[in-house]
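pipeline stage [seq->struct] | target=Ketoacyl-ACP synthase III | organism=Rufibacter latericius | residues=361
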Amino acid sequence: MPSLSLSTVITGSGRFLPTQVVSNDDFLENVFFDASGKKLIHDNDVIIQKFKQITGIQERRYATPEMVTSDLGFLAAQEAIQNAGIDPETLDYIIVAHNFGDVKATSSRVDMMPPLASRIKHKLQIANPYTVAYDLPFGCPGWLQGIIQAHYFLQSGDAKRILVIGAETLSRVTDAHDRDSMIYSDGAGAVILEARAGESKNGLLQHLTVSDTLTQTFWLNSSPSYNPEVPQEDLYIKMDGRKIYEYALKTVPQLIKDCLDKANIPLSAIKKVLIHQANEKMDEAMLERLFKLYGQDHIPEDIMPMTISTLGNNSVATLPVLYDIIARGELSGHSLESGDAVVFASVGAGMNANAVIYRIP
């Protein structure tokens, strides 16, 4: 009689994308400054065109004024619960990855108490006191790190069913005078994870996370506006794009390879590589570097699905949103079938990076 193994599997997914679409042309009237407080010399149409060439972003979604991050997270969670066909009272944990809390449309002030997980549990009207709800601020890799934490709860027998949410409203913490503000967007994605026994191992097969803080900590940070005339006590998301690009290119491909090696799975067995949708050119460069680590030049055209051109970078939400779109068969040319091996990977503030190998049950 074969022994049964316990697998951590996704049994339902959901997403919420705001209805407000913001195109690149909506930034034509912005006045952009550099980090020293000097106005950029190029016309905005030139700045925006170069931005599109580098990032691949044409438009993004912003939350409507009456909504905050926990609203987006709640709606994504509600859809995931419905997709899984479960009673929310049976959830053992609710883990919510985010970075800025419930920032209102009228203020960039961070609001993180009570925790967003508690707010979402309240919105879901879950009465069970043993449904433990907590937040996970871990930069853009936060949702994937939540998956890893949930995996340990499930494998230990401490839990049977967990909701992991990634939600963010980055539009509320961007500096309108910084061209990098065009990168960021809003959204939420969620999955239900369960422990399932079977003869073959499926679901989460392996994971790996790194945190580099000696010199890299503040490459993504909260700082005043580049416009010296804007009150300098207000803080906005800022980044050193060049250093982050170089870090991601050096770290993420090797991290994925190390994770695959730990799982004893060859790159040729991977059906999809789902990378945090941060920057199209950066993601393409990371994929190319990954294949070069294996001595391969040919990259399958459909291995890395992208949503950044129309959804922008909504931080912790990019991976669960991308997964949900593919799982529902809503991304042309991409699908996931039973037995497919998938890589999830992300990189962001901290600096943190992580990877997960997942086999579709």
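stage status: PASS
auto-comment: Residues 6-197 form a domain with the Peroxisomal Thiolase; Chain A, domain 1 fold (CATH 3.40.47.10). The chain has a mean pLDDT of 94.
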